[in-house]
Specification:
The structure is a single chain. By secondary structure, the chain is an alpha/beta fold. The strands form two sheets. It has a five-stranded parallel beta sheet with strand order 2-1-5-6-7, with helices on both faces. The chain has a two-stranded antiparallel sheet with strand order 3-4. Strand 3 and strand 4 form a beta hairpin. Helix 1 packs across helix 5 and helix 3 runs parallel beside helix 4. About 35% of the residues are buried.
Length: about 140
């Protein structure tokens, strides 16, 4: 069963975090991933687009995979369909980021269990922008 941290805990995580890698970030301003990531960027977070199909999003060069990111990542925010989460969870564990965050409507128990067993913080089916707004 997927259990998210409390809203208060999510707020603390967001206050401590600076760098957010966004898997599946679209360069289309109409897409939720773009709107959410732009709002987070406007709030002072460094956004790192991870999408092999685009070259740049929000003025930042897009990377093909999580492993291409230099330096530490605080949060990996995932905008991909639920069935892709197990593979993304394995990539996440390889870069040893702090928080695996799957957006609203995205959850997968296999990925959740895999990451929890390794001791990671996992949030699923929650919008990072909403949690940020509610916990500022």
């Amino acid at each position: 069963m997927i259990e998210n941290p409390s809203r208060e805990e999510m707020g603390q995580m967001l206050k401590k975090s600076k760098r957010i890698a966004v898997v599946g970030l679209s360069n289309n301003p109409e897409r939720t991933s773009y709107m959410v990531s732009k709002a987070m960027q406007d709030s002072g977070y460094e956004i790192i687009p991870v999408n092999p199909t685009v070259s740049e999003v929000l003025g930042v060069k897009a990377l093909k995979a999580l492993k291409d990111i230099e330096g530490h990542v605080d949060i990996v925010n995932v905008f991909r369909r639920s069935e892709f989460l197990p593979g993304i969870a394995k990539e996440f564990a390889e870069i040893d980021a702090d928080i695996f965050w799957a957006q609203l409507g995205v959850e997968n128990e296999e990925a959740y269990d895999y990451l929890k067993e390794k001791g990671y913080t996992v949030i699923m089916d929650r919008c990072i922008k909403v949690e940020h707004a509610l916990t500022k």
